[in-house]
Design a protein that fits this description.
The protein has one helix spanning 2-8, and strands at residues 13-16, 23-26, 36-38, 41-43, 49-54, 57-62, 67-69, 73-75. It has 76 residues and is mainly β. It has two domains: 1-27, no CATH class; 32-76, no CATH class. Strands 1-2 form a two-stranded antiparallel ribbon. A hairpin with a 6-residue loop joins strand 1 (13-16) and strand 2.
Length: 76
């Protein structure tokens, strides 16, 4: 799996793909808690896990769970 992730995302940070609306984010370290506005879309984690908060509700997504957002959502 590590080889595939590095092939799709050779650089740390956001990597563009052949599909205009698809980006691959690679991080080799834990990221700090940052408020963001998620646009409608789907987040698929290939390796590791991500934790996010919508208000007081915790969401965890990893290799077994994805996050789908149908409207803009403020997330931390």
């Amino acid at each position: 799996m590590v080889g595939l992730v590095r092939a799709l995302a050779p650089e740390e940070g956001y990597n563009l793909t052949a599909l205009a609306s698809v980006r691959v984010l690679r991080s080799d370290r834990s990221l700090t808690s940052t408020p963001v506005l998620y646009d409608p879309g789907i987040v698929i984690v290939c390796q590791g896990r991500k934790r996010g908060y919508f208000g007081d509700q915790l969401y965890v997504y990893d290799e077994q769970h994805y996050l789908a957002v149908s409207v803009p959502v403020p997330f931390t």
